[in-house]
Known about the structure:
The chain is mainly α. The protein has four helices and no strands. It has one domain: Helix Hairpins (Orthogonal Bundle), CATH 1.10.287.
Amino acid sequence: xxxxxxxxxxxxxxxxxxxxxxxxxxxxxxxxxxxxxxxxxxxxxxxxxxxxxxxxxxxxxxxxxxxxxxxxxxxxxxxxxxxxxxxxxxxxxxxxxxxxxxxxxxxxxxxxxxxxxx
Length: 118
């Protein structure tokens, strides 16, 4: 990765907000953002299929990368969160706490513990 800058979620949300804040239109509605998020997931799926699936790119298709599509997806997700005044750090913490509890014994651990698949 060329960019050595690491961003906190708060910094990412602030940077996106500063960008969107330049424009009179502001954030799109939640429904429009959901459509944009779905569109970006589709573009990511297309790239994954080109590189890891059975559908190679045509010679005429523009070169994109999975990394680029993940960045686009992240931008739209941050717009969605900002438009609804959601702190992504708090959202991530709640999700990870839930996953770490619910799924703690779901898969075989490298240390050999927790592989009874409750």
